[in-house]
Design goal:
alpha+beta, 2 helices, about 100 residues, TATA-Binding Protein
């Protein structure tokens, strides 16, 4: 059974700006954690060995669901902290 991370954050950026911010978060994850991503409409799909997930972009919130494989389970706390930190930093105010 996979270990899951689920984070939801409200925002007042509007969908277009939230999409730009979500791409910035995905780029940061790519640089810092070698996570690959692809955009499918209002969803950013993230993947790397032992990690897969989706970042959903909506008008007033963003939501991420990540599944961690066996080898990544010990890193759950750190990954969840980083995702939350990115959301709080980038969704707090328009940049």
């Amino acid at each position: 059974m996979a270990t899951k991370i689920h984070v939801v954050r409200s925002h007042s950026l509007g969908k277009e700006k939230a999409h730009q911010v979500a791409l910035k978060i995905a780029e940061r994850m790519k640089d810092k954690a070698q996570v690959n991503y692809r955009v499918q409409g209002d969803v950013i799909v993230i993947e790397r060995s032992g990690v897969k997930g989706q970042l959903h972009i909506r008008e007033t919130e963003v939501e991420v669901d990540i599944e961690l494989g066996l080898m990544m389970r010990p890193m759950k706390g750190m990954i969840e902290t980083k995702v939350t930190e990115y959301f709080d930093r980038y969704l707090a105010s328009p940049k």
